[in-house]
Amino acid sequence: MVEPKAKERIPAHVAFVMDGNGRWATERGLPRTSGHREGIANVSRIAEALRAHGTRYMTIFMFSTENWKRPKDEVDAIFDLLVEWLSVTAPQLRSRGIAFRHLGRRAPLPTSLLKALDDICGQPAREDDLVLSLAINYGGRAEITDAVIKAISAASEPSAIDEDSIDLALYTAGMPDPDLLVRPGGEIRLSNYLLWQAAYAELYFSPVLWPDFDEEELARSLDAYTDRHRRFGGL
Ligand code: FPP
């Protein structure tokens, strides 16, 4: 058991990329779907650990607007796992202080997945809940494009558009920007994740594959965050 950290050293919002599920399975001679099953089970472990640390927002990149390029069998299996997890595990998390939000384009996600998302996201967050945002069919560029279109249609004239109006039109409207962005799995890139919101996020790249990313690796990433000096362009 890793001791939760003192509240003042804790990031309010931590974003993760779910990366390494397929390699986790391949290394064990298992089908990639087994890795996705392990990977989605790990979301609960990390969300509960983060809530115990005092973090208020967790966001996880689960399927990008580019992941449709993967084989159809794998995409279908991912959506089936998501529907199962949203229907069985997410309600258990909901009763333990974790609220849900979907970030991403709805079309062309399957109706069964949209219904499962709507069911769990429709239950409003309470004051002490950790808000777990699921980035599914999410792309940073798609989000900014959607936000610009929305901001233009809401603005009296183009010159009325500013950073605040775009911020309010993003899928993440009303949420604080991520303080810490964690990418397990060994790749050192953002892959179109939270491009606007991560402008001043601290980045933490871990070689650990997502299904193995446990409470101890989480504590290491939080320790690294604590040691950073954030300047936001100042001194
Ligand atoms: C970003 O890198 C990683 C993601 C968008 C997460 C992808 C994860 C899955 C598709 C598995 C999800 C499984 C379940 C059960 C929800 P990338 O791999 O899309 O991009 P890259 O090629 O730049 O690394």
List keywords for this structure.
binds farnesyl diphosphate, 235 residues, globular, Undecaprenyl pyrophosphate synthetase, six-stranded parallel sheet, 7 helices, alpha/beta, 42% helix, 6 strands
Question: How would you describe this structure to a colleague?
Answer:
The protein is α/β, with parallel strands linked by helices and 235 residues long. It has one domain: Decaprenyl diphosphate synthase-like (Undecaprenyl pyrophosphate synthetase), CATH 3.40.1180.10. 42% of the residues lie in helices and 15% in strands. It contains seven helices and six strands. A six-stranded parallel β-sheet has the order 3-4-2-1-5-6, sandwiched between helices. Strand 3, helix 4 and strand 4 form a beta-alpha-beta unit. Helix 1 packs across helix 2, helix 2 packs parallel to helix 3 and helix 3 runs parallel beside helix 4. The longest helix has 23 residues. The model has no long low-confidence stretch (mean pLDDT 96). Farnesyl diphosphate binds next to helix 2, strand 2 and helix 3.
